[in-house]
Design brief:
The protein has 418 residues and is of the alpha/beta class. The chain contains 14 helices and 14 strands. A ten-stranded mixed β-sheet has the order 5-4-6-7-1-8-14-13-9-10, with helices on both faces. The radius of gyration is 20 Å and the shape is globular.
C-alpha cells in the first residue's frame, strides 16, 4: 500500500464533487443516465445532416426551455444550451443555497473539442441564398463563435460574475475542465467551480465529413450497435452531443454546509504525445495514467474501475489497450469498461459524461459493461474487461477516467469514494 499524500493536505486543498448535471443521448440526469448504462440502453439513432446525408449519431433530447427563454436559446448556441442545462442541473443537484451564493466567487470551466463550426456552417449556407451578400450575415455571429461562448452563456444565464472560460483540449476536454476547476479552487480563485465539458458536434457536417474521409465514421444496420469499442468488427466513431458539468468545492466548504459528497478528486494528469496529428501514442498514454496514479499516491492494483476512452476505431482502441496493459496487466481486481458503446463519442463532453457513468458505482457496487462486443478483438483483450453485462464489485473505492484527443493530448482523473 502506497501512502496517500492527500491525507496530509488541509481541507482547503482537497477538492470534492457535490453536484452532477448532465444531458446524454440516453439520459437527461445522472440517475436516468446510470439506469441506461446498467440496462444496456443505447442512445444512438439514425441521423441525417447536410451534405453528408444519412448517418448515425448520439442525439440529446433535453428540455432547452427548462432554464432558457426561447429568445436566449435562439440567439445563443446549441453548446451554450447544453451548458446552461447541465450547469443548472448540477447546482440543483448540489443543494447549494444558490440565491445566497456570492456569484463573484463562482468559476465556470467548460471543456470543448471545437466551437463555432455549427454557426459558421449554418450562416454561410443561409448566406448562399442571398448571393453571399454579407448584409444578411447574422449580427449574433461573433458572440456565438468566440471560444468562451459555452461558459459565457452559462455565466449570463446564472448571473455568475466570477471567472469563466472554455478549455480547448480536443476529446480530452471533459477531464481538462475538471482539472482546471480543481486548480482554481486550490488557488482560491473561486469558492465553487462549475467544471466539465460540453459538445454540440452532431450539428456540424464538417466533423462527419472528416471522419468519413478518414474511413473512421461508424456504420451499422442497427444504430444501437454501431458504437462497438473492442469488438473485432468495429468500424469507427459515432459522433454524439451532450454535456456534463460538476459542482466542485473545497472539502472544508462542503463540510460546513453539510453537502452530500459524491467523490474526491485525488489524482489527475495531462500530457502530450508530440508524435502525430491523429494517431495516439500508447507510451505517452501510459505515462499519463502513471503520473495520475503517482500524484494520487496509488498503486495500479488499487484502482477498481478504469473508464476507457476507446472510440471504436481500429488502431485507436488497440493503442489504448496496449497502454492499459502496460499499467494494469497484472491487476486481478481492476475492472475496465467503456460508455461510448452506449452513446457514441461526445467529444468535449466525453470524459465528463463517462466519469459520471461510473461514479454511481460507489453507491450501488456495480461496474457497467461495454456493450456491442460480439467478438472481442484479441488485440483489445484486457484483464477485467466487463463486456455486455454489468458486473457486481465489492465496495469500489477508486475510479480512473481516461480521456484522449487529437494532436496527442491525454488526460486522466482519479476519483475516490468519500
Amino acid at each position: 500500500m502506497i501512502a496517500t499524500p492527500r491525507q496530509n493536505l488541509p481541507d482547503s486543498q482537497r477538492i470534492v464533487i457535490t453536484g452532477i448535471g448532465l444531458t446524454a443521448p440516453n439520459g437527461n440526469d445522472w440517475k436516468e443516465f446510470r439506469e441506461s448504462l446498467l440496462n444496456g440502453r443505447s442512445g444512438v439513432s439514425d441521423y441525417e445532416i447536410r451534405y453528408v446525408g444519412k448517418t448515425l449519431a448520439g442525439i440529446c433530447d433535453f428540455d432547452v426551455k427548462r432554464y432558457q427563454s426561447k429568445k436566449d436559446a435562439r440567439r445563443g448556441t446549441r453548446a451554450g444550451s447544453v451548458g446552461v442545462y447541465s450547469a443548472n442541473e448540477a447546482v440543483k443537484h448540489s443543494g447549494l443555497d444558490w440565491e445566497n451564493v456570492d456569484k463573484s466567487r463562482v468559476g465556470i470551466y467548460v471543456g470543448v473539442t471545437e466551437h463555432g463550426n455549427v454557426e459558421t456552417e449554418n450562416e454561410i449556407y443561409e448566406l448562399k441564398g442571398f448571393d453571399y451578400d454579407t448584409q444578411f450575415w447574422s449580427h449574433h455571429h461573433n458572440p456565438r463563435t468566440v471560444a468562451n461562448n459555452p461558459a459565457g452563456e452559462v455565466a449570463l444565464n446564472m448571473g455568475i460574475t466570477g471567472p469563466h472560460y472554455t478549455i480547448g483540449a480536443a476529446c480530452a476536454a471533459g477531464n481538462a475542465g475538471l482539472i482546471q476547476g480543481a486548480q482554481m479552487l486550490r488557488l482560491d480563485e473561486c469558492d465553487v467551480a462549475l467544471a466539465g465539458g460540453v459538445s454540440e458536434s452532431i450539428h456540424t457536417f464538417g466533423i462527419f465529413a472528416s471522419f468519413k474521409s478518414q474511413g473512421a465514421l461508424a456504420s451499422h444496420a442497427d444504430p444501437t450497435k454501431a458504437s462497438r469499442p473492442f469488438d473485432k468488427q468495429r468500424n469507427g466513431i459515432v459522433v454524439a452531443e451532450g454535456g456534463c458539468l460538476y459542482v466542485l468545492e473545497r472539502l472544508g466548504d462542503a463540510k460546513r454546509r453539510g453537502a452530500t459528497i459524491y467523490g474526491e478528486l485525488v489524482g489527475y494528469a495531462i500530457n502530450t504525445d508530440a508524435t502525430d496529428f491523429v494517431l495516439p501514442n500508447p507510451e505517452r498514454q501510459a505515462e499519463c495514467v502513471q503520473l495520475a496514479l503517482r500524484r494520487a499516491g496509488l498503486a495500479a492494483e488499487q484502482i477498481d474501475i478504469v473508464s476507457t476512452h476507446a472510440t471504436g476505431t481500429g488502431l485507436g482502441d488497440i493503442q489504448e489497450c496496449s497502454a492499459l496493459r502496460s499499467v494494469f496487466g497484472d491487476c486481478t481486481k481492476t475492472y475496465v469498461n467503456n460508455a461510448k458503446s452506449f452513446i457514441g463519442h461526445a467529444m468535449g463532453a466525453a470524459g465528463a459524461l463517462e466519469l459520471a457513468g461510473n461514479l454511481a458505482a460507489f453507491d450501488d457496487g456495480v461496474c457497467h459493461a461495454t456493450i456491442n462486443v460480439d467478438e472481442l478483438d484479441p488485440e483489445c483483450d484486457l484483464p477485467g474487461l466487463v463486456l455486455n453485462e454489468p458486473r457486481e464489485i465489492e465496495k469500489p473505492k477508486y475510479v480512473l477516467n481516461n480521456s484522449f484527443g487529437m494532436l496527442g493530448i491525454n488526460s486522466v482523473v482519479i476519483i475516490e469514494r468519500f
